[in-house]
Amino acid sequence: MAHQLGSVIASIPLQATQSEVASQIQNDVLLSSSLWVNIALAGLSALLFVYMARGVSSPRAKLIWAATLMIPLISLSSYTALASGLTVGLIEMPAGHPLGGQEVLSQWGRYLTWALSTPMILLALGLLAGVERGSLFTVIVADIAMCVTGLAAALITSSYLLRWVFYLISCAFFAVVLYALLTEWATAATAAGTGEIFDRLRALTVVLWLGYPIVWALGVEGLALVQSVGVTSWAYSALDVVAKYVFAYLLLRWVADNEGTVADAGDAAGRASPADD
């Protein structure tokens, strides 16, 4: 039962108060450290990115900087909400799940983080590549839909099958994002003269983003092969650190050193899609 799975299974009622959930999080060193480390890194990253962008002057470079700065700021807010218990709850896993009938701590607030921060990553990449606005809009909407359906997969307790149905729907939206990054956006970046840095950031993004559905499938929410909320949380947090803060640092450093190329990419995008004006 609950005490046999340690921190994975909550030992308090499903109607637990926010303070009780927060206390449970803080009493689990592995779980709480995965949140507080990210809070610290998000805050430091935001300060660093403000400093790095002090000399940026072109409108397109400033827009990339603004989108990039939102990444750690959103994470800072979201991880603080997780640590406080505001966006964490207890759910009873449905019949058929390896932990069926047992209460599990769900960090559903992570999906809100991703729904707000990953569009900023894609916006920055799209601006860097000089993609046309229709494609940028489509990919960002698909990304948000991926996060929302992922949230549904994590929270459904009425049917184990439906958890996997929503998981597959989320993966389908993810496939749309991957297709654009690997094909159309890569072509646009080459034409805009930003192909080299785009390819590097795209590879980082694709490889790391593939890790999220894998962690979901193997962790408590999916097959529960890893029956530790703390371990699962650290896996997500480690992915976030590289996919967000390292990504953002590499992007801003390149933009600061190649602002003219970034501005030219915007001009190229405007010439390529006059119908958008």
Automatic annotation (TrEMBL):
Q: Which UniProt keywords apply?
A: Chromophore, Membrane, Photoreceptor protein, Receptor, Retinal protein, Sensory transduction, Transmembrane, Transmembrane helix
Give me the Gene Ontology terms describing cellular component. Answer: membrane
Compartments, as annotated in UniProt: Membrane
Q: Which InterPro entries match?
A: Arc/bac/fun_rhodopsins (IPR001425), Rhodopsin_retinal_BS (IPR018229)
Q: Which residues form a coiled coil?
A: none
What is the membrane topology noted in the UniProt record heading this document?
A: Multi-pass membrane protein
MF terms in GO? photoreceptor activity
Enumerate the transmembrane spans.
Answer: 29-51, 63-91, 111-129, 136-158, 164-182, 203-227, 233-252
What does the sequence similarity comment in the record state about its family?
Answer: Belongs to the archaeal/bacterial/fungal opsin family.
Q: What is this protein called?
A: Bacteriorhodopsin
